[in-house]
């Protein structure tokens, strides 16, 4: 069985993330969307909220499951018999850091990283930008699945 992981912070997941997950789901028998917990990173949504949102929006793909992990991604891959890490590349600016992580992960355990070019429609898209625009009342409705947009709108209203 071929199994890949799409790791990330997903705070929150965007249409760009979903595009990569859906395309990966066509290539592998199983895709695990792993919400990586970084205690040093302040997030708008808790890890439980992020995994719940992801479960809702990935329910359309029967071979996709969602999980969370605190620790090294390579350890998650070893524990879950995952052969490949799938990452979206938006622009050349992503490449340097992603290459560094891919090479480090390969050095640690031999796990492969596959880069998938993002759909050009989403090449500018980042969770941090979406949160920033939405905080100041900008329209992000085309950038997020409706259920996540609703959660984001609610969370920002609670914070006001
Ligand atoms: O969505 P993000 O924040 O760009 O995702 C980055 C993430 C979570 C995939 C990356 O930081 C990661 O893999 N973190 C897990 C900890 C780890 O393995 N660090 C060493 C990377 S070489």
UniProtKB/TrEMBL annotation:
The keyword Cytoplasm applies. Residues 5-131 form the Cytidyltransferase-like domain. It is an enzyme of class 2 (transferase). Pfam families: CTP_transf_like. It catalyses: (R)-4'-phosphopantetheine + ATP + H(+) = 3'-dephospho-CoA + diphosphate. Substrate binds at residues 9, 41, 73, 87. Keywords: ATP-binding, Coenzyme A biosynthesis, Cytoplasm, Magnesium, Nucleotide-binding, Nucleotidyltransferase, Transferase. Its cofactor is Mg(2+). Its EC number is 2.7.7.3. Gene3D superfamilies: HUPs. One of its GO terms (biological process) is coenzyme A biosynthetic process. It is found in: Cytoplasm. One of its GO terms (molecular function) is pantetheine-phosphate adenylyltransferase activity. InterPro entries: Cyt_trans-like (IPR004821), PPAT (IPR001980), Rossmann-like_a/b/a_fold (IPR014729). Pathway: Cofactor biosynthesis; coenzyme A biosynthesis; CoA from (R)-pantothenate: step 4/5. One of its GO terms (cellular component) is cytoplasm. The record marks 17 as: Transition state stabilizer. It comes from the Bacteria. Its main location: cytoplasm. ATP binds at residues 9-10, 17, 88-90, 98, 122-128. Belongs to the bacterial CoaD family. Reversibly transfers an adenylyl group from ATP to 4'-phosphopantetheine, yielding dephospho-CoA (dPCoA) and pyrophosphate. Homohexamer. This is Phosphopantetheine adenylyltransferase. It comes from Saccharothrix espanaensis (strain ATCC 51144 / DSM 44229 / JCM 9112 / NBRC 15066 / NRRL 15764).
């Amino acid at each position: 069985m071929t199994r890949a992981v799409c790791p990330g912070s997903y705070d929150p997941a965007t249409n760009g993330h979903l595009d990569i997950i859906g395309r990966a789901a066509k290539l592998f028998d199983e895709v695990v969307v792993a919400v990586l917990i970084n205690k040093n990173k302040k997030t708008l949504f808790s890890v439980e909220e992020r995994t719940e949102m992801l479960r809702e929006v990935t329910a359309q793909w029967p071979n996709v499951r969602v999980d969370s992990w605190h620790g090294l991604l390579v350890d998650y891959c070893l524990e879950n018999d995952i052969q490949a890490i799938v990452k979206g590349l938006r622009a050349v600016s992503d490449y340097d850091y992603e290459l560094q992580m891919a090479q480090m992960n390969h050095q640690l355990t031999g796990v492969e990283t596959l880069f998938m070019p993002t759909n050009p429609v989403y090449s500018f898209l980042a969770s941090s930008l979406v949160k920033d625009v939405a905080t100041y009342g900008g329209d992000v409705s085309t950038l997020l699945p409706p259920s996540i947009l609703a959660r984001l709108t609610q969370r920002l209203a609670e914070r006001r």
